[in-house]
Amino acid sequence: MCKALILSLLPAVASGASYTSTLIGTSWRVRLDIGLERGSWMPKNIKGWGGSGARVVVSALVDFEAELANEAEELVGPRSQTRVLNARGGGKIVTFDGEQAVDFTSGGWCVQRPLGAQAGSDEGLLRFWLDCPSGCARGDVVVPQGERIFFSTGVWDDAQGVRQLCEKKAMTEERLRGGEAGDSAGKDEDRSSSGFALSLPGAAFRRQVAQQEALTALRSRRAYYESWAGLEEGWEAIPAKQGSLSLKRQSGIGLLGRAIGTEYHILGTFGAER
Protein backbone atom coordinates (compact mmCIF):
# COMPACT_ATOMS: atom_id res chain seq x y z
CA MET A 1 0.00 0.00 0.00
CA CYS A 2 1.34 3.42 -0.86
CA LYS A 3 2.57 5.35 2.14
CA ALA A 4 1.24 8.76 1.11
CA LEU A 5 -2.46 9.32 0.72
CA ILE A 6 -2.97 11.04 -2.62
CA LEU A 7 -6.67 11.79 -2.65
CA SER A 8 -8.26 12.30 -6.05
CA LEU A 9 -10.76 15.11 -6.48
CA LEU A 10 -14.15 13.96 -7.71
CA PRO A 11 -15.96 16.42 -9.98
CA ALA A 12 -18.41 18.41 -7.89
CA VAL A 13 -21.88 18.40 -9.41
CA ALA A 14 -24.19 21.37 -9.31
CA SER A 15 -27.11 20.48 -7.10
CA GLY A 16 -29.93 21.67 -9.28
CA ALA A 17 -33.01 23.67 -8.31
CA SER A 18 -34.86 20.69 -6.82
CA TYR A 19 -32.06 19.66 -4.48
CA THR A 20 -31.04 21.26 -1.21
CA SER A 21 -28.62 19.33 0.97
CA THR A 22 -30.25 18.15 4.18
CA LEU A 23 -26.92 18.79 5.89
CA ILE A 24 -27.77 22.50 5.97
CA GLY A 25 -28.92 23.52 9.43
CA THR A 26 -27.75 20.32 11.13
CA SER A 27 -25.14 19.99 13.86
CA TRP A 28 -22.71 17.11 14.34
CA ARG A 29 -20.33 16.20 17.08
CA VAL A 30 -17.34 14.75 15.27
CA ARG A 31 -15.03 12.47 17.22
CA LEU A 32 -11.46 12.60 15.95
CA ASP A 33 -9.27 9.55 16.54
CA ILE A 34 -5.75 10.63 15.62
CA GLY A 35 -2.89 8.18 15.41
CA LEU A 36 -0.80 6.04 13.11
CA GLU A 37 -2.86 4.39 10.37
CA ARG A 38 -1.73 1.83 7.86
CA GLY A 39 -0.32 3.53 4.77
CA SER A 40 0.26 6.91 6.43
CA TRP A 41 3.28 9.02 5.61
CA MET A 42 3.05 10.96 8.88
CA PRO A 43 6.22 9.25 10.21
CA LYS A 44 8.09 10.71 7.22
CA ASN A 45 6.61 14.13 7.89
CA ILE A 46 7.46 13.98 11.62
CA LYS A 47 10.14 11.40 12.43
CA GLY A 48 8.83 8.56 14.58
CA TRP A 49 5.28 9.93 14.50
CA GLY A 50 2.81 7.50 16.10
CA GLY A 51 5.33 4.70 16.52
CA SER A 52 4.35 4.17 20.18
CA GLY A 53 0.74 3.39 19.27
CA ALA A 54 -0.59 6.40 21.20
CA ARG A 55 -3.90 7.96 20.08
CA VAL A 56 -5.41 11.41 20.48
CA VAL A 57 -9.19 11.22 20.80
CA VAL A 58 -11.05 14.54 20.90
CA SER A 59 -14.46 15.88 19.86
CA ALA A 60 -15.60 19.02 18.06
CA LEU A 61 -19.13 20.40 17.63
CA VAL A 62 -19.84 21.75 14.13
CA ASP A 63 -22.79 23.34 12.30
CA PHE A 64 -23.35 22.95 8.57
CA GLU A 65 -24.33 26.42 7.37
CA ALA A 66 -25.97 27.50 4.10
CA GLU A 67 -23.71 30.55 3.75
CA LEU A 68 -20.98 30.29 1.13
CA ALA A 69 -17.44 30.27 2.52
CA ASN A 70 -14.90 33.01 1.81
CA GLU A 71 -12.28 30.49 0.74
CA ALA A 72 -12.08 27.05 -0.76
CA GLU A 73 -9.76 24.06 -0.74
CA GLU A 74 -9.11 22.00 -3.85
CA LEU A 75 -9.67 18.76 -1.95
CA VAL A 76 -13.01 19.92 -0.52
CA GLY A 77 -14.63 21.48 -3.59
CA PRO A 78 -15.00 24.62 -5.73
CA ARG A 79 -15.63 27.91 -3.97
CA SER A 80 -19.03 28.27 -5.63
CA GLN A 81 -20.21 25.16 -3.74
CA THR A 82 -18.19 25.42 -0.52
CA ARG A 83 -20.27 26.49 2.48
CA VAL A 84 -19.35 27.56 5.99
CA LEU A 85 -18.71 24.91 8.60
CA ASN A 86 -19.14 26.64 11.95
CA ALA A 87 -17.03 25.30 14.84
CA ARG A 88 -18.79 25.76 18.20
CA GLY A 89 -16.45 23.95 20.50
CA GLY A 90 -13.45 21.75 20.91
CA GLY A 91 -12.51 19.40 23.69
CA LYS A 92 -9.84 18.32 26.11
CA ILE A 93 -7.39 15.47 26.08
CA VAL A 94 -5.32 13.90 28.84
CA THR A 95 -1.66 13.86 27.90
CA PHE A 96 1.41 12.56 29.69
CA ASP A 97 1.90 16.13 30.98
CA GLY A 98 -1.69 16.64 32.15
CA GLU A 99 -4.89 17.97 30.58
CA GLN A 100 -4.73 19.93 27.34
CA ALA A 101 -7.48 21.99 25.66
CA VAL A 102 -7.89 21.44 21.91
CA ASP A 103 -9.46 24.29 19.96
CA PHE A 104 -11.00 24.34 16.50
CA THR A 105 -12.00 27.25 14.28
CA SER A 106 -14.54 27.32 11.47
CA GLY A 107 -13.87 25.94 8.01
CA GLY A 108 -15.83 24.89 4.95
CA TRP A 109 -17.75 21.91 3.59
CA CYS A 110 -18.93 20.56 0.26
CA VAL A 111 -20.62 17.40 -1.01
CA GLN A 112 -19.10 15.98 -4.18
CA ARG A 113 -20.57 13.51 -6.64
CA PRO A 114 -19.25 12.09 -9.91
CA LEU A 115 -20.66 13.65 -13.05
CA GLY A 116 -24.02 12.10 -13.89
CA ALA A 117 -24.80 11.03 -10.31
CA GLN A 118 -28.22 11.86 -8.89
CA ALA A 119 -28.40 13.55 -5.48
CA GLY A 120 -31.40 11.54 -4.32
CA SER A 121 -30.35 8.11 -5.52
CA ASP A 122 -26.55 8.19 -5.17
CA GLU A 123 -24.41 8.67 -2.12
CA GLY A 124 -22.09 11.64 -2.08
CA LEU A 125 -18.60 12.33 -0.77
CA LEU A 126 -18.61 14.87 2.07
CA ARG A 127 -15.38 16.73 2.59
CA PHE A 128 -14.74 19.54 5.03
CA TRP A 129 -11.98 21.18 7.04
CA LEU A 130 -11.40 22.70 10.45
CA ASP A 131 -8.37 24.63 11.64
CA CYS A 132 -6.74 23.63 14.92
CA PRO A 133 -4.92 26.71 16.29
CA SER A 134 -4.01 25.01 19.57
CA GLY A 135 -2.59 21.88 18.01
CA CYS A 136 -2.54 18.77 20.18
CA ALA A 137 -0.11 16.07 21.21
CA ARG A 138 0.02 12.87 23.17
CA GLY A 139 3.43 11.31 23.23
CA ASP A 140 4.69 10.96 19.67
CA VAL A 141 1.27 11.70 18.12
CA VAL A 142 1.51 15.41 17.34
CA VAL A 143 -0.70 17.82 15.41
CA PRO A 144 1.28 21.07 15.14
CA GLN A 145 -0.37 24.37 16.10
CA GLY A 146 -2.38 26.03 13.34
CA GLU A 147 -2.85 22.86 11.28
CA ARG A 148 -5.77 22.53 8.91
CA ILE A 149 -7.41 19.13 9.35
CA PHE A 150 -9.35 17.63 6.45
CA PHE A 151 -12.29 15.27 6.93
CA SER A 152 -13.67 12.91 4.29
CA THR A 153 -16.61 10.51 4.47
CA GLY A 154 -19.50 9.14 2.46
CA VAL A 155 -22.88 10.81 2.96
CA TRP A 156 -26.54 10.61 2.00
CA ASP A 157 -27.85 14.17 2.20
CA ASP A 158 -31.18 14.03 0.37
CA ALA A 159 -34.41 13.31 2.30
CA GLN A 160 -35.83 11.10 -0.45
CA GLY A 161 -32.56 9.22 -0.76
CA VAL A 162 -32.43 8.54 2.99
CA ARG A 163 -36.05 7.28 2.97
CA GLN A 164 -35.30 4.97 0.06
CA LEU A 165 -32.22 3.69 1.86
CA CYS A 166 -34.34 2.87 4.94
CA GLU A 167 -36.90 1.07 2.79
CA LYS A 168 -34.23 -0.95 1.01
CA LYS A 169 -32.64 -1.87 4.34
CA ALA A 170 -35.98 -3.13 5.71
CA MET A 171 -36.66 -5.09 2.50
CA THR A 172 -33.18 -6.64 2.58
CA GLU A 173 -33.58 -7.72 6.21
CA GLU A 174 -36.98 -9.27 5.46
CA ARG A 175 -35.62 -11.18 2.46
CA LEU A 176 -32.61 -12.29 4.48
CA ARG A 177 -34.78 -13.62 7.30
CA GLY A 178 -36.89 -15.52 4.79
CA GLY A 179 -33.83 -16.79 2.93
CA GLU A 180 -32.11 -18.01 6.10
CA ALA A 181 -35.28 -19.77 7.20
CA GLY A 182 -35.63 -21.40 3.77
CA ASP A 183 -31.98 -22.41 3.79
CA SER A 184 -32.40 -24.15 7.14
CA ALA A 185 -35.52 -25.95 5.92
CA GLY A 186 -33.76 -26.98 2.73
CA LYS A 187 -30.86 -28.52 4.63
CA ASP A 188 -33.31 -30.52 6.72
CA GLU A 189 -34.94 -31.76 3.53
CA ASP A 190 -31.58 -32.73 2.03
CA ARG A 191 -30.81 -34.81 5.10
CA SER A 192 -34.11 -36.68 4.68
CA SER A 193 -34.01 -40.33 3.63
CA SER A 194 -36.70 -39.68 0.98
CA GLY A 195 -37.92 -36.85 -1.22
CA PHE A 196 -37.50 -35.53 -4.75
CA ALA A 197 -34.48 -33.37 -3.83
CA LEU A 198 -32.35 -36.46 -3.32
CA SER A 199 -33.75 -38.38 -6.29
CA LEU A 200 -31.73 -36.32 -8.77
CA PRO A 201 -27.91 -36.53 -8.42
CA GLY A 202 -26.46 -33.10 -7.65
CA ALA A 203 -29.79 -31.26 -7.57
CA ALA A 204 -29.68 -30.62 -3.82
CA PHE A 205 -26.07 -29.42 -4.03
CA ARG A 206 -26.83 -26.99 -6.87
CA ARG A 207 -29.81 -25.66 -4.97
CA GLN A 208 -27.74 -25.11 -1.83
CA VAL A 209 -25.04 -23.30 -3.82
CA ALA A 210 -27.63 -20.97 -5.36
CA GLN A 211 -29.19 -20.32 -1.94
CA GLN A 212 -25.82 -19.55 -0.37
CA GLU A 213 -24.89 -17.16 -3.18
CA ALA A 214 -28.19 -15.31 -2.73
CA LEU A 215 -27.72 -15.14 1.05
CA THR A 216 -24.15 -13.89 0.67
CA ALA A 217 -25.35 -11.09 -1.60
CA LEU A 218 -28.09 -10.12 0.88
CA ARG A 219 -25.66 -10.14 3.82
CA SER A 220 -23.26 -7.93 1.87
CA ARG A 221 -26.10 -5.52 1.16
CA ARG A 222 -27.11 -5.50 4.83
CA ALA A 223 -23.51 -4.72 5.83
CA TYR A 224 -23.59 -1.74 3.48
CA TYR A 225 -26.72 -0.35 5.14
CA GLU A 226 -25.24 -0.96 8.59
CA SER A 227 -22.18 1.11 7.62
CA TRP A 228 -24.24 4.33 7.80
CA ALA A 229 -24.56 6.24 11.08
CA GLY A 230 -28.00 7.43 12.12
CA LEU A 231 -29.98 5.37 9.61
CA GLU A 232 -32.08 3.84 12.38
CA GLU A 233 -32.50 7.19 14.18
CA GLY A 234 -33.99 8.96 11.16
CA TRP A 235 -31.29 11.60 10.69
CA GLU A 236 -31.91 14.10 7.90
CA ALA A 237 -28.44 13.39 6.52
CA ILE A 238 -26.43 10.27 7.29
CA PRO A 239 -22.65 9.88 7.12
CA ALA A 240 -20.64 6.69 6.95
CA LYS A 241 -19.83 5.44 10.45
CA GLN A 242 -16.14 6.08 9.88
CA GLY A 243 -14.37 8.71 7.82
CA SER A 244 -10.74 9.65 7.28
CA LEU A 245 -8.63 12.55 8.57
CA SER A 246 -5.69 14.01 6.71
CA LEU A 247 -3.20 16.89 6.63
CA LYS A 248 -2.05 18.74 3.53
CA ARG A 249 1.63 18.86 2.67
CA GLN A 250 3.51 20.20 -0.33
CA SER A 251 5.48 17.65 -2.31
CA GLY A 252 8.42 18.25 -4.59
CA ILE A 253 10.34 21.47 -5.20
CA GLY A 254 10.59 23.09 -8.64
CA LEU A 255 13.45 25.00 -10.21
CA LEU A 256 12.40 28.25 -8.53
CA GLY A 257 12.08 26.64 -5.12
CA ARG A 258 8.30 26.39 -5.32
CA ALA A 259 6.25 23.35 -4.37
CA ILE A 260 5.05 21.45 -7.42
CA GLY A 261 2.51 19.09 -5.86
CA THR A 262 0.22 18.41 -2.93
CA GLU A 263 -0.05 15.32 -0.74
CA TYR A 264 -2.66 14.51 1.88
CA HIS A 265 -1.15 12.47 4.70
CA ILE A 266 -3.40 10.13 6.64
CA LEU A 267 -3.87 11.50 10.17
CA GLY A 268 -6.51 9.14 11.60
CA THR A 269 -10.23 8.50 11.46
CA PHE A 270 -13.40 10.13 12.73
CA GLY A 271 -17.05 9.38 13.42
CA ALA A 272 -20.12 11.61 13.72
CA GLU A 273 -22.96 11.88 16.22
CA ARG A 274 -26.09 14.04 16.25
Looking at this protein, list some descriptive labels.
274 residues, alpha+beta, 13 strands, 36% strand, disordered N terminus, signal
How many helices? The count is 3
State the end-to-end distance.
Answer: 34 Å
Largest sheet: 8 strands, antiparallel, barrel
Mean pLDDT score, rounded? Answer: 85
Strand fraction equals 35-45%
What is the C-alpha radius of gyration, as a whole number of Å? Answer: 24 Å
In one word, what is the shape?
globular
Count the strands? 13
Order of helices and strands: EHEEEEEEEEEHHEEE
Global structural class? alpha+beta
Q: How much helicity do the residues have?
A: 10-25%
Unreliable segments of 5+ consecutive residues = 1-17, 192-198
Structurally, the number of domains stands at: 2
Give the neighbour order of strands across the main sheet. Answer: 1-2-3-6-7-10-12-13
Can you describe this structure in just a few lines?
By secondary structure, the chain is an alpha+beta fold. Helix content is 22%, strand content 36%.
Topology:
Blueprint: E1 27-34, H1 42-45, E2 56-68, E3 83-89, E4 91-95, E5 98-102, E6 105-112, E7 124-132, E8 136-138, E9 141-143, E10 147-156, H2 159-190, H3 203-226, E11 238-239, E12 243-253, E13 259-273
Antiparallel strand pairs: 1-2, 1-13, 2-3, 3-6, 4-5, 6-7, 7-10, 8-9, 10-11, 10-12, 12-13
Overview of this structure, please?
Keywords: Signal. Residues 174-194 are annotated as: Disordered. Residues 1-16 form the signal peptide. There is one protein chain. The chain has 274 residues and is α+β, with helices and mostly antiparallel strands. It folds into two domains: 27-157 and 237-273, no CATH class; 162-226. It contains three helices and 13 strands, in the order βαβββββββββααβββ. The strands form three sheets. The chain has an eight-stranded antiparallel β-barrel with strand order 1-2-3-6-7-10-12-13. Strands 4-5 form a two-stranded antiparallel ribbon. The two termini are 34 Å apart.
